[in-house]
Design a protein that fits this description.
This protein has eleven helices and no strands. Helix 4 (about 75-105) runs antiparallel to helix 5 (about 120-160), helix 5 (about 120-160) runs antiparallel to helix 7 and helix 8 (about 205-235) crosses helix 9 (about 240-250). The protein has helices spanning about 5-40, 45-50, 50-65, 75-105, 120-160, 170-175, 180-200, 205-235, 240-250, 260-285, 290. By secondary structure, it is an all-alpha fold.
């Protein structure tokens, strides 16, 4: 018989493997939309108001002219980012949610297993409640930021073919946009896991819940993501506050510029996160030995 600590370790490991598998499907489904979103976020004010079709056409013309890979530009860096961060995200979330539940939501004096042996995400979150899932997601997002920030910098620059000065390519340059990344990951994952838990309590399909949770992530995270994208693709380093002011000043709609790319991001979030959570739950439903063979 396994002890609680052994069960939690196995649950975290299995969640990591399932998250990696989910990252592959999510990246393939969502990458074209992500490239269009980044172009809209980092372009001039006039370009930010262009249609989704117009931005896609611009990328297509660039690829035909030898100026990049179109909507698939930066796919391999993005795949690396998505697989690694998705695996760490779900693995850390499984561990953090159990710890948070034990600290704040477990019944007084009860020595009970917080994570059921079936290792299903929605069962773990049902125990810990929407509030616990949101708090855990916020903490997990912060813990994930040191990994996400440099990977996102590489991905963003490869997607827009940004000509970055050599001085911006070192370790310090890879951590440009740090504050914005922490805020994006923390608030976004709080919304993501909280909303997903709610959909599971309403007994919605994992794919449907993933689609709704993905939309919630970006509604909460988009302003920080816009600032992050600008900081990471800028030729000269700027602070979070300076980038924020510059974005608002350049945007024709004022603070509306902080939601530049939101429509295409939501179009991406729905199928992508449906695929992510469907794949995640499918792998988590496998016996332990078969699930770990997915690596």
């Amino acid at each position: 018989m396994m002890h609680d600590d052994d069960t939690q370790t196995l649950n975290t490991t299995k969640s990591f493997v399932a998250g990696c598998a989910a990252g592959v499907t999510g990246c393939i489904v969502g990458h074209p939309f992500d490239t269009i979103k980044l172009v809209q976020q980092t372009s001039s004010a006039a370009a930010q108001t262009s249609s989704l079709a117009g931005s896609a056409k611009q990328l297509l013309l660039q690829s035909r002219g030898g100026g990049g890979g179109g909507v698939w530009a930066g796919l391999f860096p993005a795949l690396g980012v998505q697989v690694l961060t998705s695996g760490v995200l779900f693995g850390v979330q499984a561990s953090v949610s159990a710890s948070v539940a034990k600290l704040f939501w477990a019944a007084d004096g009860e020595d009970q297993a917080l994570i059921p042996s079936e290792f299903r995400l929605q069962q773990a979150m049902a125990v810990s409640s929407v509030s616990c899932a949101s708090v855990s997601g916020f903490l997990t997002g912060g813990l994930l930021s040191p990994l996400v920030c440099p990977l996102e910098a590489i991905k963003c620059r490869s997607q827009v073919a940004a000509q970055i000065p050599a001085g911006r390519l070192g370790l310090r340059g890879l951590y440009s946009g740090w504050t914005a990344t922490v805020l994006r990951c923390s608030f976004g994952n709080a919304a993501f896991f909280g909303v997903y838990t709610l959909t599971q309590q309403l007994d919605l399909h994992a794919g449907v819940g993933g689609a709704i949770a993905g939309g919630a992530f970006w509604v909460a995270a988009m302003p920080f993501d816009v600032v992050k994208s600008r900081m990471q693709t800028a030729r000269a380093p700027l602070s979070f506050a300076a980038t924020f002011r510059q974005a608002v000043r350049q945007g024709k709609g004022g603070v509306r510029v902080l939601y530049a790319g939101l429509p295409v991001t939501l179009l991406r979030a729905i199928p992508m996160n449906a695929a992510v959570l469907f794949t995640y739950e499918a792998v988590m439903a496998l016996p332990v030995d078969r699930a770990l063979d997915c690596t």
